[in-house]
Design a protein that fits this description.
With about 350 residues, the chain is α/β, with parallel strands linked by helices. About 35% of the residues lie in helices and about 20% in strands. Strands 5-4-3-6-7-8-9 form a seven-stranded mixed β-sheet. It has a two-stranded antiparallel sheet with strand order 1-2. The structure holds S-adenosylmethionine. S-adenosylmethionine binds next to strand 2, helix 4 and strand 4.
């Protein structure tokens, strides 16, 4: 699945393309996509493919195509403080983006069949928290991943506001998925080759909308060798945050607001100029054929439209020669981090406020 938008050179470029093709339509989804570099979820040596609109599979690691994730994120209609359950949570890429939108008072759980994939997801999450500046720009709901078969979730589990299933659901399991939703909640899943958005409108009523034709690998159905059912999967609790945790969230929020106000008072931020002009991808119109040897070769013929495009491209090229040379980009400063480090506080408290991060 994928290939719906052109390949990007880097994460921002990929997001530009997804926006241009209308897969990303809202600011909050755009911000979450820009904050998490898809390349960080690839193994070394495979990263070059991360900015193409293609799914990626390596052993048990499996990422869906970016255009699918964009549709999913938009269809989930995420808000701060919601509870989210990711069935087949894989690398944690989607769960991490969701965590940036639902914020610190949300709930963010994932169930994944393979232990090695859960370990991989936990490593990626730790790297994000330790190294990414995005972690300081957002308030984050850290995902918790459990190993297990998501078709065997214990029946006394909590219901969730938002659920996504990342593998194909059989019609027989549709109700099993739907009852895990709270009334008013939204479930997004691939079923019968359609990415479908289901809204629970009442205790026993749901509304369903097809979003996109898709082809997903099906959810794995497991039974023990002796034919018995596997153990029920117990999801993490909906735990209440400690007062200490809440204090950290509010102190960081206050410092972040201060830093943002200071930055604003220094005047509007200079927009980084676009790195490159978009290529015009239009197949040549074929109007004539010429003989070369004994072969008939199509020969594109220039039309008024072609001439206009060519003229515009030449003008753009000339403009490029006249604009001032770009200054090298200054390294981005993590203002929140700097501010916290300069607070008149004991060192261990600063380290706590920085989430023990290394960067
Ligand atoms: C396309 S991947 C989803 C990737 C994920 N959205 C991400 O952000 O990386 C589908 C995942 O579903 C998992 N899966 C398949 N059947 C499952 C099951 N019955 N229970 C739990 N996970 C399952 C696969 O192991 C795979 O990691």
């Amino acid at each position: 699945m994928g290939g719906a938008v052109s390949a990007g050179e880097d994460n921002d470029d990929l997001i530009d393309n997804l926006k241009e093709a209308q897969y990303i339509r809202t600011d909050k989804v755009e911000q979450a996509f820009r904050a998490i570099d898809r390349g960080d979820y690839y193994l070394e040596g495979y990263r070059d493919n991360a900015y193409k609109d293609l799914a990626w599979k390596h052993g048990n690691i499996h990422l869906s195509a970016p255009c699918i994730y964009s549709e999913v994120m938009e269809a989930l209609n995420l808000q701060q403080g919601l509870s989210f359950l990711n069935l087949g949570s894989g690398t944690g890429y989607l769960s991490t983006m969701v965590g940036l939108i639902i914020g610190p008072f949300g709930v963010n759980h994932g169930v994944e069949l393979h232990k090695d994939v859960v370990d991989y997801a936990k490593d990626r999450l730790e790297e994000f928290i330790r190294n990414s500046d995005s972690f300081d720009k957002f308030e984050f709901c850290e995902p918790s991943f459990v190993v297990g078969n998501c078709l065997e979730i214990s029946s006394d589990s909590h219901q969730y506001d938002r659920i996504y299933c990342g593998a194909g659901v059989q019609k027989d399991h549709e109700n099993y998925m739907k009852v895990m939703l709270k009334v008013g909640g939204i479930l997004v899943m691939p079923i019968e080759d359609q990415l479908t958005q289901i809204t629970r409108t009442g205790q026993s009523s749901w509304e369903s909308k097809n979003i996109l034709a898709v082809s997903f690998a099906p959810l794995v159905q497991q039974s023990r060798n002796d034919g018995s059912k596997p153990d029920a999967v117990v999801l993490p609790p909906f735990s209440v945050r400690t007062l200490q945790d809440i204090a950290r969230i509010y102190i960081r929020r206050t410092v972040r607001n201060l830093v943002n106000e200071e930055a604003l008072s220094k005047g509007p931020v200079q927009r980084v100029p676009q790195k490159r002009k978009r290529r015009r991808c239009r197949p040549p119109r074929i109007n004539t054929y010429v003989f070369v040897g004994n072969q008939l070769i199509p020969e594109p013929m220039e039309s008024e439209e072609d001439e206009r495009i060519e003229k515009e491209s030449k003008e753009e090229e000339q403009d490029k020669d006249t604009v001032e040379p770009l200054k090298p980009e200054e390294p981005q400063v993590n203002l929140l981090r700097d501010k916290i480090l300069n607070l008149p506080l004991p060192e261990p408290l600063k380290v706590y406020l920085l989430y023990y991060r290394e960067k």
